[in-house]
Specification:
The complex is a heterodimer of chains A (111) and B (114). With 111 residues, chain A is mostly beta strands. Chain A contains no helices and 11 strands. Chain A is 0% helix and 60% strand. Chain A starts with a strand and ends with a strand. In chain B, the strands form 2 sheets. In chain B, strands 2, 4, 5, 6, 9, 10 and 11 form a 7-stranded mixed β-sheet that branches. A 4-stranded antiparallel β-sheet of chain B has the order 1-3-8-7, with no helix packed on it. Classes of the chains: A mainly beta (111), B mainly beta (114). At the A-B interface, strand 5 and strand 10 of A face strand 5, strand 9 and strand 10 of B.
């Protein structure tokens, strides 16, 4: 069964303390691995799409990487405004209109 | 990037009444839009796929007579929660652009049924 698993479930960092979020997937025929950020009471905001192992993308303090089994979202010197839930997801291999979601990592960055 | 606008952001209604939520793609044409429901601290759950000019496709367990979807144009889909009850209280989110590329999500609608 296709599955996306995120860890940790929650993470608390001090401002400036770099860390990584993990998204492991078991999908036959990956059609893109997406990272989104969701703030409380708001819809998810697109961050990155990765398509092939070895691919990396960066945006400000965030860097997403992809291997054949997992993706990492690296956060360098985070700030309190980076606090949010980070979601990873991928299209269902049998129906790419349907998304397989991880449960997210809730990140809190303390000043 | 593309923008999807959802309205209203919050709505409180009485039990038994109906509520309509709008989802608009502001700068692109969306032949397909998606409606999700999200419970606190849980992932988004796909409710239905809204297809322009045809009937929506509902996920298993979602009552189509309860959650009416109308995709009247390439830029507008609506979700109507009919005869709402307190258990329908939730966060509803629409998205568009999901064809193997990034999906763009609306801001979400917090529905509270009292």
């Amino acid at each position: 069964e296709d599955q996306v698993t995120q860890s940790p479930e929650a993470l608390r960092l001090q401002e400036g303390e770099s860390s990584s979020l993990n998204c492991s997937y078991t999908v036959s025929g990956l059609r893109g691995l997406f990272w989104y950020r969701q703030d409380p009471g708001k819809g998810p905001e697109f961050l990155f799409t990765l398509y092939s192992a070895g691919e990396e993308k960066e945006k400000e303090r965030l860097k997403a990487t992809l291997t054949k089994k997992e993706s990492f979202l690296h956060i360098t010197a985070p700030k309190p405004e980076d606090s949010a839930t980070y979601l990873c997801l991928t299209p269902d291999a049998g129906n790419n209109r349907k998304l397989i979601w991880g449960l997210g990592t809730s990140l809190a960055v303390n000043p | 990037g593309a923008v999807v606008s959802q309205h209203p952001s919050r709505v409180i209604c009485k039990s038994g009444t109906s509520v309509k939520i709008e989802c608009r793609s502001l700068d692109f044409q969306a032949t397909t839009m998606f409606w999700y429901r999200q419970f606190p601290k849980q992932s988004l759950m796909l409710m239905a796929t809204s297809n322009e000019g045809s009937k929506a496709t509902y996920e298993q367990g979602v009552e189509k007579d309860k959650f009416l979807i109308n995709h009247a144009s390439l830029t507008l889909s609506t979700l109507t929660v009919t005869s709402a009850h307190p258990e329908d209280s939730s966060f509803y989110i629409c998205s568009a652009g999901n064809r193997g590329t990034e999906a763009f999500f609306g801001q979400g609608t917090r529905l509270t049924v009292v």
